[in-house]
Give the backbone structure.
Amino acid sequence: MQGAGAALYFVIAGTLVQKAGFDAAYLACAAATAVALAVLVALMPETAPEPPRSGPAAWFRAMLPGKA
């Protein structure tokens, strides 16, 4: 996906620059980036660790990967 996006970016941006100018190409790329960020934020599962359960060393166990 990254390779295809990088290859198509120059084609699309170049066409927009020729047809509508640099400002339109910049705004179109910024809009595509904003949409991608919104999709990422909306669909990305939460990755924050769970709060420590209890006990004196619970905070340490919660920080270890795969341990809780």
Q: What stands out?
A: Helices lie at 2-20, 22-43, 58-63.
